[in-house]
Each structure stands twice: as structure tokens, then as C-alpha cells.
């Protein structure tokens, strides 16, 4: 067993090996080691701290999900910078889609549905949202519920569940990404 401070001195390769075995501490160390660099890369392209942070969270959430099959041919720093660049490009492309969505929603709102139709649509959306939340892994669902429904801060969640704040952030980011993907078809249905 490695002490928490022992992870600091490990090479990226050793941390990746531990990560593949599910060591959250190795994941946390990689996150702390590269977070600021990746935030800088994303921020320089997007000029938004919030969006840059979300993209960095998504990249690390993806690494955690794929940790057992992750194949890094070059060094980790290059891999992460490339992943951030592609994530930023995907975000920029999605903005074009979002702009089209906003224009469509303005048109739809001009011909707004009756209160009864709106109530039915809300109930349908609420049903699918709750179903997607229930399908999240147990710890992820617990962290997400504390964050979004009980308004706990990341620090409070970490203390309550005895996990690191970075792990709590990961679970929140993972839940949001999963919910976005699961509810995308509902958006198309309502249009």
C-alpha cells in the first residue's frame, strides 16, 4: 500500500498502472499534476474559465471511465493536451448546434404550447430525468443528489462521504455528462 504522499513521487507510467487497477489516489495525483496545464490550454482557446473547467473535468472523467483499456503510446502530457484540444474543438462545433437550437426554441416559444401540453411535457421530462439519475452508479448518484438536490458544496460532499473533493467533482462531472447523453433523445422528441 502506498501512502497518500507517496503518489507524488511516482512517475506518470506508474500512476497510470495504478489507475488501471482502480486506485483513486493515482487518479487524483494525475489530476493535480495536469489540471492547471490543461485549464490553461482550454482557457486560451475559449476565454471562459467555467467552460474550460468543465472540459477538463470531462476529459478526466473520460480517462477514469476508460482507465482499464486506456492505451497511451506517447507521454501522458502529450496525450492529455491532444485530448483537451479535441474536446475544445468538439465544444466549438457544438456551439454551432446550440445556436441553431436557440433559434429553433425561439420559434417554438412564439407558438407556445398550452399549459396542459407544457405540464405533460414537463412530466415526461421529469420522468426521464429521474430514470437517468436512478441508472447512475450508486456513489455517482449519491454525490450528484447531494450536489444538485440538497445543495451541498463539493467540500461538504467529500466530508460527508469520506472521499476526496476531486473524486466528488469527478462524480458530479460524470453524472452531468451521462445525463446530457441520456436526455439528448428527449430534446429531439420535444422539437
From TrEMBL:
<dbReference type="InterPro" id="IPR039425">
    <property type="entry name" value="RNA_pol_sigma-70-like"/>
</dbReference>
<keyword id="KW-0731">Sigma factor</keyword>
<dbReference type="InterPro" id="IPR036388">
    <property type="entry name" value="WH-like_DNA-bd_sf"/>
</dbReference>
<dbReference type="InterPro" id="IPR013324">
    <property type="entry name" value="RNA_pol_sigma_r3/r4-like"/>
</dbReference>
<feature type="domain" description="RNA polymerase sigma-70 region 2">
    <location>
        <begin position="30"/>
        <end position="96"/>
    </location>
</feature>
<dbReference type="InterPro" id="IPR007627">
    <property type="entry name" value="RNA_pol_sigma70_r2"/>
</dbReference>
<dbReference type="GO" id="GO:0016987">
    <property type="term" value="F:sigma factor activity"/>
</dbReference>
<dbReference type="InterPro" id="IPR014327">
    <property type="entry name" value="RNA_pol_sigma70_bacteroid"/>
</dbReference>
<protein>
    <submittedName>
        <fullName>RNA polymerase sigma-70 factor</fullName>
    </submittedName>
</protein>
<dbReference type="Pfam" id="PF04542">
    <property type="entry name" value="Sigma70_r2"/>
</dbReference>
<dbReference type="InterPro" id="IPR013325">
    <property type="entry name" value="RNA_pol_sigma_r2"/>
</dbReference>
<keyword id="KW-0804">Transcription</keyword>
<keyword id="KW-0805">Transcription regulation</keyword>
<dbReference type="InterPro" id="IPR014284">
    <property type="entry name" value="RNA_pol_sigma-70_dom"/>
</dbReference>
<comment type="similarity">
    <text>Belongs to the sigma-70 factor family. ECF subfamily.</text>
</comment>
<dbReference type="InterPro" id="IPR013249">
    <property type="entry name" value="RNA_pol_sigma70_r4_t2"/>
</dbReference>
<feature type="domain" description="RNA polymerase sigma factor 70 region 4 type 2">
    <location>
        <begin position="132"/>
        <end position="179"/>
    </location>
</feature>
<dbReference type="GO" id="GO:0003677">
    <property type="term" value="F:DNA binding"/>
</dbReference>
<dbReference type="GO" id="GO:0006352">
    <property type="term" value="P:DNA-templated transcription initiation"/>
</dbReference>
<dbReference type="Pfam" id="PF08281">
    <property type="entry name" value="Sigma70_r4_2"/>
</dbReference>
Amino acid at each position: 500500500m502506498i501512502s497518500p504522499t507517496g503518489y507524488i513521487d511516482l512517475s506518470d507510467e506508474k500512476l497510470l498502472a495504478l489507475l488501471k487497477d482502480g486506485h483513486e489516489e493515482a487518479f487524483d495525483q494525475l489530476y493535480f499534476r495536469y489540471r492547471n496545464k490543461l485549464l490553461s490550454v482550454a482557457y486560451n482557446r475559449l476565454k471562459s474559465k467555467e467552460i474550460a473547467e468543465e472540459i477538463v473535468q470531462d476529459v478526466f472523467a473520460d480517462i477514469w471511465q476508460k482507465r482499464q483499456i486506456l492505451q497511451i503510446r506517447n507521454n501522458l502530457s502529450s496525450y492529455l493536451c491532444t485530448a483537451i484540444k479535441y474536446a475544445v474543438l468538439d465544444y466549438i462545433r457544438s456551439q454551432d448546434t446550440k445556436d441553431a437550437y436557440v433559434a429553433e426554441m425561439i420559434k417554438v416559444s412564439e407558438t407556445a404550447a398550452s399549459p396542459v401540453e407544457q405540464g405533460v411535457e414537463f412530466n415526461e421530462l421529469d420522468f426521464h430525468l429521474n430514470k437517468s439519475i436512478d441508472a447512475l452508479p450508486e456513489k455517482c448518484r449519491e454525490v450528484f443528489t447531494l450536489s444538485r438536490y440538497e445543495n451541498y458544496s463539493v467540500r461538504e460532499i467529500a466530508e460527508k462521504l469520506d472521499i476526496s473533493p476531486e473524486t466528488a467533482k469527478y462524480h458530479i462531472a460524470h453524472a452531468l455528462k451521462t445525463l446530457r447523453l441520456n436526455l439528448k433523445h428527449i430534446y429531439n422528441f420535444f422539437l
